[in-house]
Amino acid sequence: xxxxxxxxxxxxxxxxxxxxxxxxxxxxxxxxxxxxxxxxxxxxxxxxxxxxxxxxxxxxxxxxxxxxxxxxxxxxxxxxxxxxxxxxxxxxxxxxxxxxxxxxxxxxxxxxxxxxxxxxxxxxxxxxxxxxxxxxxxxxxxxxxxxxxxxxxxxxxxxxxxxxxxxxxxxxxxxxxxxxxxxxxxxx
Length: 188
Hints:
By secondary structure, the protein is an alpha+beta fold. The protein has 3 helices and 10 strands. Strands 1-2-3-4-5-8-7-6-9-10 form a 10-stranded antiparallel beta sheet. Residues 1-35 have low confidence and may be disordered. This is Invasion associated locus B family protein.
């Protein structure tokens, strides 16, 4: 699966605008005409939650989200957003604004030292967060389906140590598959 920077940026803008205000309450998805069972807002797949937003009376967009915050202050560490697409998913990582962008944003499967880390591409900073994105093709989704967790990291400044957090991934691929099953079919 090949993603162009322009199409990734357009989707990143949509995801950024959808999450920039960091609203917890979201509009429930309207009933779909498809025979696939609808997923309710906040349906859990492990630590991932379904979040749906109405785009029109007959159409909504749903995504999986997981947010990690500091226990004491509630300050955002990372918000991960997986947006299902026909041939995989787009994964966005939103971190606090002020991150050291040249340091990059990366993830790798925990306890799998033999697998390389994956680079994410910084998209933009807006509304107090900076967002990195990457495409997940079928092969990457399959790899992630066997992972209990991934390590996600970025740098807050040039001289600082990277901030690395463990992200729970059990049932992630199941959640993406459930949302992909609800995508409009060709011609709908």
